[in-house]
Amino acid sequence: MSKKVKELPEDIEVIGPGQMLAEARDAMGLTQKEVAAKLNFRVALVDEIEHELFDKSLPDTFNRGYLKNYAKLVGVSEQDVLASYEMLGVAAKQRTEMQSFSKITEKQAQNSRLMWITYLILAALVASSILYYLQDIPSKAATKTVANTTNSKANTDETAQPTEKAEELPEQSNYQPESTLNTVKGKTSDNVDDKFINQPEEGDIAQAIVPDNSIEPVLEIITPVESSDITAIFSFAGDCWVNIYDGNGERIAWGIKKAGYVMELKGVAPFKVTVGKPELVAIDFNGESIDMSKFNVGNIAKFTLPESP
Fold first, then answer.
1. pTM
2. What's the CATH number of domain 11-91, 1.10.260.40, 2.40.50.100, 2.60.120.10, 3.20.20.370?
3. How far is CA 174 from CA 38, 167, 169, 171, 177, in A?
4. pLDDT in tens, 204-214
5. Which of 135, 184, 299, 306 is spaced 20 to 30 Å from 56 by Cα?
6. Is the pLDDT of residue 224 over 70?
7. Which fold has domain 230-305?
8. Distance CA 37, CA 25 (A)
9. Is the dihedral of CA 74, 78, 81, 85 positive or negative?
10. Residue 309's pLDDT is what?
11. How far is 258 from 241, CA to CA, in rounded Å?
């Protein structure tokens, strides 16, 4: 099923938490060493945060705590910094998927090269076999010529000896007794009768050729499943981070949306929505307005559309 996300032709730029904190620190005229002294951090830790090199061996709570303390010091919104930190995980996942795809493509290319090498080796073997056969033909022909020459000389010697004896044979040398002729004729007729007797009948041959059509084919029918889309319109009064999944578990919208931005989504319900600042978002779900005043101002709101009764 196809999903469409209609957005204005305005590029959305996602800034990492380290860049946000580093720019705020430079604006306040602080150095990394001064920030480390005020927060009781190591200078190397401050540099790693600004370059977004987080220690994966530590629990996620520690990294969030470092970011919140740093954000308070330089006067940056904690929610924006944490939202940007969450986006780093999404980007890392996408990079992992791209790396997996590139590895699969590289493996397919390697297999293709191996196949071509195999084909070249087989072609070389076939060509060498043909060449060997062509080279072997003249030697066999020469051997046969020598053998035929030897046999012809022997036959010439044998035919020269009985020539003298052939003159002494009687003129009736071609005479054959009738008994011998009858014997030969009888053997010939017997052989002919045996051939006709042992021949199979045409009916047996036709019966052996007729295929067995007693097995009927089985036809399997698969009916496609159809589903309808749900429409939701998000209007943003200020910069706000969102993360939305549809009913199939696929992400259909994410990132920081700027003030005045209008986003229309279509997909399979229910929508799982996460909003960084619910007071800055107005939602129209299938023609009905969603009450956003029930969420705390300045806190992240997580809810599902349509809302459960």
1. 0.29
2. 1.10.260.40
3. 137, 14, 10, 8, 10
4. 434 433 444 44
5. 299
6. no
7. Immunoglobulin-like (2.60.40)
8. 14
9. positive
10. 65
11. 9
